[in-house]
């Protein structure tokens, strides 16, 4: 990351902290991110309009008052809806509202007009292909909320301050090769997540974990036809996958929380993902999966589902996502239900990687049955990776990553499963455990060695992906002998034998201490005699 990017990130975070006052950070997040998004949409609109108007020797700010204003606006609207998916009039641009709010007099009151503009952006897409991608996108920006201020004047003053501070920042949107604004947006999402406690898990996966998942599913790939996240939160994990390959054809995600769903759509657009290339759906994935997604199979799937979530399988017991297993995940723990859903959506040549609580590795009953089915019946479990505790926001529990492939039977590793114990490989930063780049690299390189042992140049008596006290390539027979229990310590021995105690040396040390104590006692006795008091012995 460049110094300019770091400075921009810090500037934005300072603005957020300066202006939110006593407002809860989780509430202020929706405002600051929403207005950054509005600024982005405005700048993209200006660039698109100027491009379309260039042959006429005009710029967008020259359209208002032009003798053919109405004709030009209609033509620009049609062009923008196809290219961008939305439309903004010159009077609705971020810079115009910021200028008015800072002008003084009666025009400085912009709350009502700002609300109309945000509504207009959504309404501009009605009847177009992008309608679902922009519908209700700004519903969490409640400009009437008392959280902004007790009076209308106070609310207006705060909003104007936010717009003015953001207006001074150049996000370099004009540079097609730059993703400064998208990265800044991602940074703010992460910063708000780190302070949001347990709620953060609803919308954000720490970048360190996202990198691992993304690199696992892109092994041997430089392009992906599609990537899918059934619990996509803010969409950050989907976007992380895109950074690991040259191209992703399409992004698909589902998110049950309406606020987080809006954040995901904004995040996609802010990273310059065209509205035709992503489809985010707002519903419960397990009970109400997207009817569009259900018809598709995905080349890569990544997920950080809510840990041990409650769900109701009764209404969908015959659903083809679950029925082949003969068992449903417990109502109190939906972990394996998410796994079953993802396997169903996975393409034949696809790979999925998901984060789950450790309990999925060894819990019995229905979960044990599903686990055995994935190993013995379909042979789809490829790797089990244990992560350190306390690396997720809002929970300190240890977690694991399961890597599954739809068709392993044609691969050289079809009779094995890789186990990695990375639980002790982290750096403690304040109260949080953090995976450093070298920790991430070791996990991913071990998995890739497992995938391609022939590329390892070392001389090994065992599989080259087996590393003492870190990883082990187990045969399916070994897993069967363990009754399909995947608890990592059964396969990776991390026990460190303590150094033997030299009892003779300890005895000599005790004798020496005894002599030194005798000398000290003599000194104290002498002092006591001089003082004419009894000795303490």
UniProtKB/TrEMBL annotation:
Enzyme class: transferase
Key word Methyltransferase present: yes
UniProt keyword Methyltransferase present: yes
Family of the protein in this entry: Belongs to the N(4)/N(6)-methyltransferase family.
Molecular function per GO: DNA binding; N-methyltransferase activity; site-specific DNA-methyltransferase (adenine-specific) activity
Any one GO BP annotation for this protein: methylation
InterPro entries referenced in this protein's UniProt entry, alphabetically: D12N6_MeTrfase_N, DNA_Adenine_Mtase, DNA_methylase_A-5, DNA_methylase_N6_adenine_CS, Restrct_endonuc_T1M, SAM-dependent_MTases_sf, T1MK-like_N_sf
Residues annotated as domain N6 adenine-specific DNA methyltransferase N-terminal: 8-165
Pfam families: HsdM_N, N6_Mtase
Protein name: site-specific DNA-methyltransferase (adenine-specific)
Reactions catalysed: a 2'-deoxyadenosine in DNA + S-adenosyl-L-methionine = an N(6)-methyl-2'-deoxyadenosine in DNA + S-adenosyl-L-homocysteine + H(+)
Keywords, comma-separated and alphabetical: Methyltransferase, Restriction system, S-adenosyl-L-methionine, Transferase
Organism, scientific name: Neotamlana sargassicola
Record EC number: 2.1.1.72
NCBIfam families on file: hsdM
